[in-house]
Design goal:
Blueprint: E1 4-8, H1 11-16, H2 23-34, E2 39-42, H3 54-64, E3 69-72, H4 82-95, E4 100-104, H5 111-119, H6 127-142, E5 147-150, E6 154-158, E7 172-174, H7 179-188, E8 191-192, H8 199-215, E9 224-233, H9 237-252, H10 256-262, E10 265-268, H11 270-283, E11 287-292, H12 296-306
Parallel strand pairs: 1-2, 1-11, 2-3, 3-4, 4-7, 7-8, 8-9, 9-10, 9-11
Antiparallel strand pairs: 5-6
Helix pairs in contact: 3-4, 4-6, 7-8, 8-11, 9-10, 11-12
Length: about 325
C-alpha cells in the first residue's frame, strides 16, 4: 500500500505571528481533508515554544475533519499526570471514534525545554522513567479494570470511564533516533516516529526495531514505521532553500544549518519532493507526517498534486 500522508497544523507558527485564533487552524484541517490527506497532527509545548494545547485542539479537529486520523507530533507525557492524561486521551479517542494516535517523545535537551520542565514541576533527569511508567499506567487505566498502582503515582481502586473507543487505547508511537529509542520501540511501543533519520538510516534502524520486537516475542509486522519531515516547496530550488533556512531560524532561534542537520528536510520542486517521500516509503515508512515552511494552502495543494506518484510505492 502507498504511505499515508499526514499534515502538521502550524499551531506554534500562528502563536509566534500573534494569530492564536483556532478557527484558521480548523479551516486548514478541513482543507487537508478535502485534498485527501490521511491525518492531522499537532505538536506540544507549554512554555518553551508556546502553542495551543494539542489534545484540546485535536478534539475540535476530530469534529471538523471526521474522516482523518489525528495525532500528537509529539506529546511530552512526562509533563502530565498520567491519570489525567489517560482520561483526556480516552475522551479524545471517544470523540474521534478511534482515530487518535498518541505520538510521544522525551524532549530535546535544550535550555528552554529544561526550563519548561522546571515550570511544570518535573525533574529533568527523571523524565524518561516518568514517561515510561506514566504510559504503563495509562494503558492499565484504559483497560477499564480496577487499577492498583504503587510507584511514582499511588492509585487506589481506580476505574477509568470512559475507556478509549479503541480497545486497550490508541496506538503509541515514539520518536528518537538513538539506540535506547530503538529498544523502547521494539519492546514497548506500537510505532517509531523519528524526525532525524534519512531514508537509508530509517531502513536500517526500522529493520533493527523489528528484530528487537521479534526477540521480545512481539509481532514485528504490527509495528508502524512513521517519520516527521519538514518541507519547503518551490520550483526555484534556491528560493526554497532560503525559505527553509528562514523558517528554521525563526522557529528555533538557532542557525538553520544546525537544525537542518538535526531534522530531515527537503527544499525544492514538488516533483523532487515526491521522489524524496517515495524513498521513505521504500525504506519501510507507512505514514509520512509533513510540516511545511509557511504558505500552507500552497504547500497542501502542491503535495496533493504529486501524491498520485506515490500510489504504486510501498515498503
Amino acid at each position: 500500500m502507498p504511505p499515508k500522508i499526514g499534515y502538521l497544523l502550524p499551531t506554534r507558527e500562528q502563536v509566534m505571528e500573534g494569530r492564536p485564533e483556532a478557527a484558521p487552524l480548523l479551516a486548514l484541517a478541513a482543507r487537508a481533508e478535502a485534498l485527501g490527506y490521511d491525518s492531522i497532527w499537532i505538536g506540544d509545548s507549554v512554555t518553551a515554544r508556546p502553542r495551543h494545547d494539542p489534545l484540546t485542539l485535536l478534539a475540535a479537529v476530530a469534529v471538523r475533519a471526521p474522516r482523518m486520523e489525528l495525532g500528537t507530533a509529539v506529546l511530552l507525557p512526562a509533563l502530565r499526570n498520567p491519570v489525567l492524561l489517560a482520561h483526556q486521551v480516552a475522551t479524545l479517542d471517544q470523540i474521534s471514534e478511534g482515530r487518535f494516535i498518541l505520538g510521544v517523545g522525551i524532549a530535546s535537551d535544550v535550555p528552554n525545554i529544561r526550563t519548561e520542565f522546571e515550570a511544570c514541576g518535573v525533574p529533568w533527569e527523571k523524565r524518561i522513567g516518568r514517561m515510561m511508567e506514566g504510559l504503563r499506567l495509562c494503558r492499565a487505566l484504559w483497560s477499564g479494570e480496577k487499577v492498583e498502582w504503587d510507584g511514582r503515582w499511588r492509585v487506589r481502586d481506580a476505574v477509568l470511564g470512559p475507556v478509549p473507543h479503541r480497545k486497550g487505547g490508541p496506538p503509541i508511537w515514539i520518536g528518537g533516533n538513538g539506540q535506547p529509542s530503538l529498544e523502547r520501540v521494539g519492546k514497548h511501543f506500537d510505532g517509531w516516529f523519528p524526525n532525524g533519520a534519512d531514508a537509508a538510516r530509517f531502513a536500517t534502524d526500522f529493520t533493527e526495531i523489528q528484530a528487537i520486537a521479534r526477540e521480545a516475542a512481539r509481532d514485528p509486522a504490527a509495528l508502524t514505521g512513521a517519520v516527521y519531515l519538514t518541507l519547503a516547496i518551490d520550483d526555484d530550488a534556491a528560493r526554497a532553500d532560503a525559505r527553509l533556512d528562514a523558517f528554521m531560524e525563526h522557529y528555533y532561534g538557532q542557525p538553520a544549518a544546525v537544525m537542518r542537520a538535526r531534522q530531515v528536510n527537503y527544499a525544492g520542486p514538488a516533483a523532487g519532493a515526491a521522489e524524496w517521500l517515495a524513498g521513505y516509503a521504500r525504506a519501510g515508512a507507512s505514514h509520512l507526517v509533513l510540516r511545511f515552511a509557511g504558505d500552507h494552502e500552497r504547500h497542501l495543494e502542491a503535495i496533493a498534486g504529486v501524491r498520485g506518484s506515490l500510489a504504486g510505492v510501498s515498503a
